[in-house]
Structure formats: C-alpha cells, structure tokens
Design a protein that fits this description.
10 helices, alpha/beta, 3-stranded mixed beta sheet, single chain
Length: 314
C-alpha cells in the first residue's frame, strides 16, 4: 500500500508512519514545517516530507505534483489542531476553522483531483458527541452529535465536508471518531504525559493533577494507528467508526499505576476535586466487526513507556 499522511510529524502521525513502514508500505508525508522532531528514528527520517500547512491554503504546486507522482492508495488525514484548548472555548477560533475544517476540504480536493483518487481516512474525534453523563456515557456511531466545545464543533464540520465531497465527487472516504489516546512522545499538555513529565523531573514539589474522578476511554496510540491501517484496508466506503478501548477507566486508577511505577514519595495535589465526571466511552463493535481489531497494549505498558520517555527526555 502507498500511503500519504498529512500531519505526519505529529504525535499520532509519527507512530502511524512507523507502523506503515513496518508493514511494508511506502509512505509520503506532509507537515507545517516539514521537519522531524528529535524523537524521529532513522527509518522515519528516510520518509520524504512535503511542506504544507493545511490551514494556510491549497498546497503549493510542487506538493500537489509530488502527491500525484506518488499516487497514494490511501490518504490518512491527521493534520489538525488536536489539543482542544487550542481551538477556542465554545466557539471555534478562525485558525481552528482554517486548519480543522478548511484544511480537511483542501486535503479532500487534493485526493479528488488525482488521476486515481485514493481512499481518504479522516480522523475525527469523540468530541463530536453530545455530553456524556453517568446514565449515558457509552456511545455507538448512531449516538447524537451535539458538541459543546469549539474543538468538537470543528471536527463535526469537517465530517460534514467529508460527506459532501464523497457524495459530490465520488471520493472513497472513511470517518474515524478517535477517542482519547496517549503514549510516549505526546505533548505534556495532555493528562498522562503531563503527569509523567512531573514525575520525571527531579523535584520535591507536589505532583499536580486536575481531577481524579473522571471516567475516560484511553487507548495506547500504537494500538490506535494499527486500527487506522486496518480501516484503510478493510473499512466500508462511507463508513463511520468509533476507535477507542471500549473500557471506562477512572483517572485516579491511571495515577495509581503511575505512582506504583514512579516509586515517588512526592505528594499529589488534585486541583479540581469534586464529584465524578464521564467522558464518552466507545462502543467499538462496528470497528471490530470490520477489522477484528483489539487493543493489545495494557494500561501499565502505556504508562511505563510514557514515564520512561519523559525520564529520557532532556
């Protein structure tokens, strides 16, 4: 398979590229700066990078030409403002619209204009769903979409753009609603790497955590990218697939694993202590029926590898 990845130098993009290469695929990628971060290994650094900020406009002519020459079988569209706080609060910022919505439209146009249009796998988010509650927190793909925050709104608008392009131009598309995923190399602005980075720093200051009584659906990014490739191969054209662990885990349980592995005596301060909360939990029966995918990496492995990464990061 020949794969073109937008946002290839990001957290999930790098792991996806590694998995595709290990599976024998040919890989081409684009990113805003077209530079690999320090964590990129030798195999990744041999992948050709194209410089394209999907939020700034259509790709330069040389990028469009390079993609056409590469002739991908599948386009994995990962380029996005993927940290929700970067997109605004209730209403999306203009930059969030340009990157997450217009950038998706531009990527679809690139694919549609190729002599042999590829499959386009668009990575959406569980944030498109309505607010989760204790009584209703497990969602399948037919659950109501009613995002309350800016990030989810941009992802839902991008989904609508995917459906329009598929209907109007006949592009083979798949929408993947990814639930929370994590692992080594993730920015320390998100839960597990934020905690792990604090544990890894030599300090006597308390470890600060936000809320220890939230139920989340958390999957290792390395499992997630396996599912992306399987859906690229086996997913139904026009399909929407939830991608998560399907398991509700309390954030306090995640901290307990980190405390055990970190062997630290530092105090822990909960910044927003309060009653339990629920994030959406994925019903993944559709994904499993299409691909046979199952998460393989345990929570303990994910936490251990994330902590080791931050202990080895200057």
């Amino acid at each position: 398979m020949r794969a073109f990845i937008t946002g290839i130098t990001g957290f999930a993009g790098g792991f996806l590229a590694e998995h595709l290469l290990a599976s024998g695929d040919d890989v081409l990628g684009s990113s805003r700066r077209a530079e690999w971060p320090n964590w990129a290994n030798g195999d990744l650094r041999r992948v050709k990078l194209l410089k394209w900020d999907v939020g700034d406009g259509n790709p330069p002519a040389e990028v469009a030409t390079a993609v056409a020459r590469f002739a991908p079988d599948c386009v994995y569209h990962l380029a996005a403002l993927s940290i929700p706080s970067d997109c605004g609060t209730t209403d999306p910022t203009e930059r969030a619209i340009q990157v997450n919505v217009r950038g998706t439209e531009r990527t679809l146009d690139v694919a549609a204009n190729l002599p042999r249009p590829p499959r386009v796998l668009f990575v959406s988010s569980s944030h498109v769903y309505a607010k989760a509650t204790k009584e209703k927190h497990r969602f399948d793909e037919s659950a109501p979409t009613d995002p309350q925050r800016a990030y989810g709104k941009t992802k839902l608008m991008a989904e609508e753009a995917v459906r329009r392009t598929a209907a109007r131009r006949g592009v083979d598309t798949i929408i993947v609603r990814a639930f929370q995923h994590t692992g080594p190399r993730q920015e320390p602005r998100l839960m597990l790497p934020e905690w792990a980075a604090q544990f890894a720093r030599p300090s006597s200051e308390p470890i600060q955590v936000k809320h220890l009584n939230t139920w989340v659906d958390l999957t290792d990014v390395r499992d997630v990218v396996r599912a992306y490739r399987l859906l690229g191969e086996r997913g139904q054209a026009g399909g929407i697939y939830n991608l998560g662990s399907g398991v509700a885990t309390r954030t306090g349980e995640i901290l307990d694993v980190l405390l055990k592995l970190g062997r630290s005596s530092r105090a822990v301060v909960e910044l927003q202590a309060g009653p339990e909360k629920y994030d959406p939990i994925a019903d993944i029966r559709r994904l499993q029926a299409a691909t046979g995918w199952r998460p393989e990496l345990s929570l303990e492995t994910t936490v251990a590898d994330t902590l080791a990464y931050w202990r080895n990061t200057p």
